[in-house]
C-alpha cells in the first residue's frame, strides 16, 4: 500500500537553528509532492510543491525541499528558523494506486516548536 | 477571493444518527476533496469530486458518502454514526485534480 513517512514527530529548535524534516514515500510511478503547514489555530496551507523539473523547490517563508527520486524522499529544509515557524508540518504525496486511483496520502505530521 | 468554507464548524451527534457536512470551495475550483483528521490516524483521504463526479475514493466504509453539485459545492454524509467517527473533517478545493489544495477550517464532529 502507498505510504508517506515523516521521521520526526516532534522537533524542538532554538531560533536561528537550521531545520530539516524528513519525508519518504512508497509509490510507484509519477508522483506529485507537497509540504503543508498548519500554524496554531489556522487552516492547513501549502508551503511548497513539486510536480516536475528542478528537484530543488522553493516555497514560502524561506522553506525549500529537495526531491531525490532514487531515495523516494522529499525533505523540507530551512537554513534559519524563526519563532513564527512553530507549527505542524505535513508531507503529502499524490500518486497512482494499484487500483488505478490517484489519491493523496499525508504523513502523520511533525510538530515543530521554535524557542525564541 | 473567499477561502474554502465549511458548515457547521462544530457538531455533536449521538451514535446511530446520521450527519451531513457542507463545503463551499473557492470560486472557480472544480475539485473538492474530503479528509478525516484524528490524533490516532492523522489525515486520511475520504473521497474527491470533480465536476459532480466522484473521481477517487479512500479506504472508508460505505457509511461515508458524498456528492457535488453543479456549483461545485459539496456535501459529505455519514450514516449510522459510530464513536470512532469523532474527528475533524476537512474539505479542500483545487482547480484540477492534481493541483495544490486549499483547505477549509474543518467541521469538528463529536459522536457521543
Largest sheet of chain A: 6 strands, mixed
Strand content of chain A: over 45%
The topology string of helices and strands of chain B comes to: EEEEEEEEEEE
Number of helices of chain A: 0
Could you please describe the fold and organization of this structure?
- The complex is a heterodimer of chains A (116) and B (112).
- By secondary structure, chain A is an all-beta fold.
- Helices cover 0% and strands 56% of the residues of chain A.
- Chain A has strands at 3-6, 10-14, 19-21, 23-26, 32-38, 44-50, 56-58, 64-68, 73-78, 87-96, 102-106, 110-115.
- In chain B, the strands form two sheets. In chain B, strands 2, 4, 5, 6, 9, 10 and 11 form a seven-stranded mixed beta sheet that branches.
- In chain B, strand 9 and strand 10 form a beta hairpin.
- Chain B is globular and about 35 Å long.
- Classes of the chains: A mainly beta (116), B mainly beta (112).
- At the A-B interface, strand 5, strand 6 and strand 11 of A face strand 5, strand 6 and strand 10 of B.
Question: Keyphrases for this structure?
Answer:
heterodimer; A: six-stranded mixed beta sheet; B: 112 residues; mainly beta; seven-stranded mixed beta sheet; four-stranded antiparallel beta sheet; 0% helix
Compact summary:
The complex is a heterodimer of chains A (116) and B (112). Chain A is 0% helix and 56% strand.
List the helices and strands and how they pair.
The complex is a heterodimer of chains A (116) and B (112).
Chain A (H helix, E strand, L loop, with lengths): L2 E4 L3 E5 L4 E3 L1 E4 L5 E7 L5 E7 L5 E3 L5 E5 L4 E6 L8 E10 L5 E5 L3 E6 L1
Parallel strand pairs in A: 2-12
Antiparallel strand pairs in A: 1-4, 3-9, 5-6, 5-10, 7-8, 8-9, 10-11, 10-12
Chain B lengths: L4 E3 L2 E4 L5 E6 L6 E8 L3 E9 L2 E5 L6 E5 L5 E5 L8 E8 L7 E2 L3 E5 L1
